[in-house]
Write a structure and sequence with these properties.
14 strands; ten-stranded mixed sheet; Carb_kinase_PfkB-like; transferase; Carbohydrate kinase PfkB domain-containing protein; single chain; four-stranded mixed sheet; Ribokinase-like; globular; alpha/beta; about 350 residues; about 35% helix; UDP-N-acetylmuramoyl-L-alanine:D-glutamate ligase; kinase
Length: about 350
């Protein structure tokens, strides 16, 4: 497969935070009525891979089921997506943190869209490889309450392999941000090896309750390796992690994660989050004054805010507070990208809470 690497203008300084997303991904996000969700196999609210034919079928059915709202006249949005891309883009565009991406995109329209979206938001794209083949896509179906159901199409998509990574991809960076996924286990392990050799801290997100449920053993092995410095889980993923234990509460999961990770965070949706670092445990409420349009990207942007707090040297509680501000900002509109108005809203919330604002203002 011919792979070429992109270099963007004036690239000298290594990104402070690097995201590994082996396959670039394009999200198609739309608000839909319940009847479409009934037609789609799999549990509502989760994320289950589909073949290209099914993706096309869902996209064609979408048009009959789209809900439009007065606040958001464009009923469907297409943008660069993927959990890690959402986090990295947020760090770059909203927090002004020098961030970059490692991954591969296809030689198609979707690939071009991914690259230009990332580049436009200031992300360092010099570690993205272009390959021959299709770029991954995902349909994000959002119900009237802002809950999302995702159907990614990844099977034929191009992605970066473990043996393509080099020391130079990681050199000079401070953090590596990843998402747990069984299909990317080999590249994840290779990236962790390089990261540790180059002195980077590693952050991982537990992805989805199905991923934790179906591939729990390799995940536990990864956590027990001691190579994961920071772990993010939502309530469902946390419960799944301790499935079968007498106590599978989010608090018990936090305790479990903190045995192996320096920082452990469990997000609790509308109930905020709990986090642990060394002996310190904090509980931070969610921001009450926001209305949920679409929960897509809430955890990803929370992670971005939390990481911003860490690189700024903020306390554990402050890191959680920044996370709740950025997580609250993304759910105010469709998709995993924060709009300029919602960044402004976030800066205002941070100001009210006495948190240090980023050096940039959109």
């Amino acid at each position: 497969m011919g792979a070429e690497t992109l270099v963007n203008n004036g690239e000298a300084k290594a990104p402070l935070i690097l995201g590994l997303q082996p396959a670039a991904l394009i999200d198609h996000v739309a608000c839909v009525d319940w009847s479409l969700l009934h037609q789609i196999p799999g549990e509502r609210g989760g994320s289950i891979p589909v073949e290209f034919k099914e993706l096309e079928h869902i996209l064609s059915e979408l048009k009959k089921h789209i809900l439009t709202s007065v606040d958001d006249p464009s009923p469907m949005k297409t943008m660069a997506g993927g959990s890690v891309a959402n986090t990295i883009r947020g760090l770059s565009s909203g927090f002004g943190v020098n961030s970059g991406m490692i991954g591969a995109y296809g030689d198609d329209e979707q690939g071009q869209l991914f690259v230009s979206n990332m580049n436009f938001t200031g992300v360092n794209i010099s570690r993205l490889r272009k390959k021959t083949g299709p770029t991954a896509q995902c349909v994000c179906l959002v119900d009237a309450y802002g809950n999302r159901t995702m159907r990614p199409c990844l099977s034929t998509a191009v992605k970066v392999q473990g043996d393509e990574l080099t020391k130079d991809d990681f050199s000079g960076s401070k953090w590596l941000v990843m998402r747990y996924g069984i299909f990317n286990l080999e590249v994840t392990q290779a990236a962790i090896r390089f990261a540790k050799l180059e002195g980077l801290s590693v952050s991982i997100d537990l992805a989805s309750f199905e991923m934790v449920r179906n591939f729990r053993e390799p995940l536990l092995k990864l956590l027990k390796s001691g190579d994961i410095d920071l772990c993010f889980a939502n309530e469902d993923e946390a419960t799944e992690l301790l499935r079968g234990e007498a106590n599978a509460s989010p608090e018990a999961a936090l305790e479990y994660l903190s045995k192996y990770c320096r920082w452990a965070v469990v997000t609790l949706g509308a109930n905020g989050c709990i986090a642990k670092h060394a002996p310190e445990v904090v509980r931070v409420p969610a921001i009450g004054e926001t209305k949920v349009v679409d929960a897509t990207g809430a955890g990803d942007l929370f992670a971005g805010g939390f990481l911003y707090g860490l690189v700024k040297g903020l306390s554990l509680e402050e890191c959680c507070k920044v996370g709740s501000c950025s997580g609250g900002a993304v759910i105010r509109s469709l998709g995993g990208e924060v709009t300029p108005e919602n960044w402004q809203w976030m800066y205002k919330q941070m100001q009210i809470k006495g948190l240090p604002l980023p050096d940039i203002r959109n």
